[in-house]
Amino acid sequence: MSAMRYTYLGPEGTFTEAALRTLPEAATRELVPMVSVPAALDAVRNGEAAAALVPIENSVEGGVTATLDELASGEPLMIYREVLLPIAFALLVRPGTGLSDVKTVTGHPVAQPQVRNWLRAHLPDALWESAASNADGARLVQEGRFDAAFAGEFAAATYGLVPLVSEIHDAENAETRFVLVGRPARPSAPTGADKTSVVIWMGDDHPGALLELLQEFAVRGVNLMLIQSRPTGAGIGNYCFAVDAEGHIADRRVGEALMGLKRICPKVRFLGSYPRAGVSPADVPTLRPGTSDSEFIEAAEWLARSQDGRA
Description:
alpha/beta; 5-stranded mixed sheet; 26% helix
């Protein structure tokens, strides 16, 4: 049944699979690898799967454009939760391969900037060619098409390879954020440590246009955690903006900010409000004065009294 099936960016042995298996419900679901992010999300859109786990942001490279573009276009989908996974690579090779034997290497394009300095120091003459995923790179090494692949060490056994070098990363504490995406429904209840994701389209390009969008958040005390521009495909200079904001759509400050955007933008796509990974309500900064739900309610009641002549 599709309700028991989750898709993910495959093949087997990807960091995405590792992240998916950290979810408690993964133990009771059929986990199906897909060849690409669009394929994983399309399986949800057409009812073949209940949800898909896909990468959306990396602490070194920033937003994962394939995921951002898929969520901004096509039939709407919604984010229900996020997973943070520490990322360290291993150089996987066929048994018997030494470092001096490595002339060609492969891995996902997002992996290369995370190991660039290591490559320069240890394999300066090796030729890099990108693969569809890190695990797919491991498969290509297994088939003899490359000498080595950068992938998670856990992928070695799946493809009959061995880790020649482990714990490779140019940036300490590198991590990737993944999101569990399903069909649109009512968001889960606020936890006090939430995130809201939207995609915003500007009406026209004029001085201060982006500032006008950001002010809808700023004047209500909503902190932005990510903003990334993406081309709309309508020509040079036409962009939409993927935004992650602190808070839940049920919070008055966030809801009013989204209403403000809806008034001034030709299109706003709500991608979901969901718990922040690894953050408890005690970790969330104190709200600025005038931005709590009780203060929004008090202001609304004052306005109603004023309209009735009771202020």
